Amino acid sequence: MFTQRSIPHSRMQLTAFFALALVSVAAAAPTQLTGRATQNVYTIHPNGDTTKCVGVLGGAFVVGAAADIFDCNGSATQKWYFTSGPRMTNPADGSEWALDVAPLGEANRELVNGVKVVLNKSEDGGEDGSPYQSWGGPSAPSAPKIELSISQPANGVMCLDLTDGIKANRNPLQIWQCVAGNTNQIWTYTVVGQITI
Fold first, then answer.
1. CB 78 within 8 A of CB 55
2. Per residue in 112-127, pLDDT tens?
3. What is the C-alpha separation between 77 and 91, in angstroms, rounded?
4. Strands 86-89 vs 81-82: parallel, antiparallel or unpaired
5. Residues facing 98 on adjacent strands
6. Among residues 140, 147, 120, which one has the least CA distance to residue 38?
7. Rounded to an integer, what distance in angstroms lies between the CA atom of residue 126 and that of residue 123?
8. Cβ–Cβ < 8 Å for 70, 53
9. How far is CA 131 from CA 61, 101, 109, 196, in A?
10. Cα atoms in the 13 Å half-sphere on the side-chain side of 60
11. Strand pairing partners for 188?
């Protein structure tokens, strides 16, 4: 005949206590996403032309590659998110990239009309990072029109500029003194996804 062995009451309470403690610890344990944020990813267009996108000449993540205008094609080098300026992530290795001004490697670059805009590894702006990657602009755009500008005390505020107003593929972008209403300096965007950073 089968007899059921009873478990002492205190042992049952202890088991229940440990089970409850384990559930509490699991619920309180931080996830790997703690401190990370989800950002919208955008394509950036010259003055509302959604067939053209700001991208990278040659479509490759290469330090010093010119930022340019090209037909929108959904490539990773046309997808931007905003922190202290437009940023993009290389999906192959997760590295972060930013718009910068040429020539790279010079500590005291002058922001003057016609300086080309290039791709560079992302650095935080401010005292510890590159001021040449700290573009003023929306951290969370609320209207489809944006102005991307960079400033230097000696030269004032400069804007991302569509060189000569030409939307032809591979036209490299430049900086130019900001002028209200200058259509070469008006940029619009389309939300194309999200990224967790």
1. yes
2. 899 999 998 887 644 4
3. 10
4. antiparallel
5. 87, 120
6. 140
7. 9
8. yes
9. 21, 10, 10, 24
10. 5
11. 45, 145
Domains of the chain and CATH, by start: 38-196 (2.80.10.50)
By the 8 A CB rule, do 149 and 158 touch? yes
Reading the block at residue 122, the tokens are: 């992302």
Q: pTM for the complete prediction? A: 0.72
Place of tokens 């344990």: 29
* CA atoms of 84 and 180, how far apart (whole Å): 22
Q: What are the backbone dihedrals phi and psi of residue 27, each rounded to the nearest 5 degrees, phi first?
A: -70, -35
Alpha helices per DSSP H over the chain: 9-28
Least Cα distance to 110 among 131, 128, 125, 127 occurs for 131
- Type of residue found at 63: V
User: Does residue 51 surpass a pLDDT of 80?
Assistant: yes
